[in-house]
Amino acid sequence: MPVLASFALAYLLNPIVLQGEKRGLSRTISAIAAIFLVTLAVAAFLTFVVPDLWAESTKAGQKIADSFTPENAARQREFLRRYSPALERVAGNKIEQFLSDPVAFYNENMGTTTVDGSGKVVVNGGGSAVLDTIVSSLDLLLVPFFVFYILVDFPTWRDSLEDLIPPRFRDPFSRLFDESGRILESYVRGQLLIGLIMAVCYAFGFWVLGVPAWAGIALIAGLLNAIPYVGTILGIALAGAFTVAEGGSIWEFAGVLGVFVAVQTLEGYILTPRILGGRLNLHPMAVFLGLLVGGKLFGLLGIILAIPGIAIGKVFLKFLRELYQASHFYHAGDHHPAQAPSEKIEERIAEAAETVLAEQEQKGGKDEETKEPPDGEIPTIIEKPA
Fold first, then answer.
1. 324 with 260, same domain?
2. Rg (CA), the chain
3. Is 268 exposed, middle or buried (0-12, 13-18, 19+ CB in 10 A)?
4. Quick check: is 224 in a domain?
5. Lowest mean per-residue pLDDT among 9-23, 181-195, 358-372
């Protein structure tokens, strides 16, 4: 996860580094300046947004904790018995136990006891999970160092990797790698732009509804939209809990849900097709299958990487398809000898790459040239420098 976050930040910061180089700064100084700007943004978030979120979270948590009493548990079970006797018979005891003492309920139903190889009894509960999460989060401290070295050394890495490709194949594969880089660049920057637009829409809706800490919740829900379901679920949980803690009615909670439905509809039908649709151009079935397989094999990391991975894989699959359809095996007996595909594999590879790149250029729009970037356009981070 730290490496993934580092590459994403490097894609976002590379334009700043290139602008610094155009003004005579070294790549090292430009990378330090770009990382410093991000550090300032993070510091501003921690200074102005997090304290408000923490205060509201504490208030909401206290109010929710006050409702976990035996008296309230008995009232809720009676309410459940009145309106759903069947559900009360199935889960009434568990619900009453949870509302009476959630800590005891968790220890009884969620905590597990195991024995390690040495015979030592180990209790696995919420405390150990929280500790593991804290320890894992310390890895994020490595992100600034990873970003710095990626920004500074990536052109060198690119040259070293290209030296491994035989010279006669280097040009078409270099251009395919450039297109893969532009797809990743479009995805990372597009997701950031979509997240910012969604954050603004969330903020407006929460401000109208009077949701506490509306700015922080909007930022979290918008920027975490890049991780499927996480941003939406976390945003609904925070906005709903804060609204209830402030004495909001069921209609105000319904208004919060309405804001999420409206913004998610805007994202699904307008923002993503217009901002990401050109380069990615993925079938919805491919996206669903990618998320399913990626999540099953690699968990959260697989879900995050599924969509850009499918988009890049689609480019190389098209290349293999063009190469196959230009082969003698595919056209045996169909062409006149003068029209037969070239016997040189180098020429067939170049033609296949040219066809795929032309198709990508047509889908991506005229402002994203695949051969030579227009004047003033900033090349992708993994595009080989001139």
1. yes
2. 27
3. exposed
4. yes
5. 358-372
> Rounded to whole angstroms, how far apart are CA atoms 96 and 70?
8
**227 lies in the same domain as 148:** no
Beta bridge partner(s), residue 124: 112
Going by DSSP bridges, is the β-strand pair 112-115/121-124 parallel, antiparallel, or unpaired?
antiparallel
- Whether the Cβ atoms of residue 92 and residue 85 lie closer than 8 Å to each other: no
User: At 200, phi and psi to the nearest 5?
Assistant: -65, -40
Are 187 and 311 in contact, with CB atoms under 8 Å apart? yes
Burial 102-131 (b: 16+ CB within 10 A, else e): eeebeeeeeeeeeeeeeeeeeeeeeeeeee
pLDDT band at 179 (very low <50, low <70, confident <90, very high): confident
What is the C-alpha separation between 3 and 190, in angstroms, rounded? 20
Q: What is the mean pLDDT of residues 320-325?
A: 79
CB 109 within 8 A of CB 98: no
- Distance, CA of 62 to CA of 76 (rounded, Å): 19
Domain that holds residue 11: 1-110+140-164
Q: Tens digits of per-residue pLDDT, 34-80?
A: 899 988 988 888 888 888 888 877 877 777 777 777 777 777 778 77
Q: Which tens digit of pLDDT belongs to each residue from 221-242?
A: 998 887 777 888 888 988 888 8
Phi, psi of 121 (to 5 degrees): -80, 130
Containing H/E element for 150? helix 143-162
3-state secondary structure 330-381: HHCCCCCHHHCCCCCHHHHHHHHHHHHHHHHHHHHCCCCCCCCCCCCCCCCC
Least confident of 85-99, 157-171, 267-281, 359-373: 359-373
- Rounded distance between C-alpha atoms, residue 102 and residue 277, angstroms: 46
Specify which residues 112 forms β-bridges with.
124
One domain for residues 73 and 195: no
Query: Which amino acid type is present at position 233?
Result: I
Backbone angles phi, psi at 159, to 5 degrees: -60, -40
User: What CA–CA distance (Å, rounded) separates 7 from 184?
Assistant: 10
Kindly state the average pLDDT of the residues 280-294: 78
